[in-house]
Design goal:
mainly alpha
């Protein structure tokens, strides 16, 4: 709440940048802990890290931007969004993504050989849906004027 109502947030795009930065920071820490916190780091299994870099980072960016878009709608578009209307979509998408990824590890040996591919495909689809939702939710911000903060600072405002 403190960042949302400060003058540091000049327009919706800057709020999206803050949300994107927070989400990417979380993604980096989570990926590091996930890859190096398991046997993957000791065994030299780089595939897990590479897969997470291409799926997890864009997905976390999208989920953070969805949250940021909800906050931007509230601040700049006058919508009465609350945490109960902003967070369900990112939480549901993140939960579905995690379910698919963690289910791969829990598959029994007798599972069909295509099961890991299908679960990976689910995570790819969830990531694509998340990115599409970000595009849809941020389109109205194109009509909000861009604030040139540097020009305002030079003018002494």
């Amino acid at each position: 709440r403190a960042v949302l109502w400060k003058d540091l947030v000049a327009d919706p795009r800057s709020l999206l940048v803050y949300a994107c930065g927070a989400a990417n920071g979380f993604a980096v820490v989570e990926n590091f802990l996930y890859v190096c916190g398991t046997d993957a780091c000791a065994t030299g299994e780089i595939a897990t890290g590479v897969l997470r870099a291409f799926l997890s980072v864009p997905a976390h960016t999208a989920w953070g931007m969805l949250s940021g878009a909800g906050l931007a709608e509230r601040k700049f578009m006058g919508k009465s969004n609350s945490v109960f209307t902003i967070l369900p979509a990112p939480i549901l998408l993140h939960g579905t993504y995690n379910f698919a990824i963690f289910s791969i590890q829990l598959l029994p040996n007798r599972a069909p050989s295509y099961a890991p591919v299908l679960l990976t495909l689910v995570s790819v689809i969830v990531t694509a849906i998340s990115i599409a939702l970000v595009w849809y939710k941020t389109r109205p911000f194109e009509h909000v004027p861009l604030v040139e903060v540097r020009a305002l600072q030079r003018a002494g405002l």
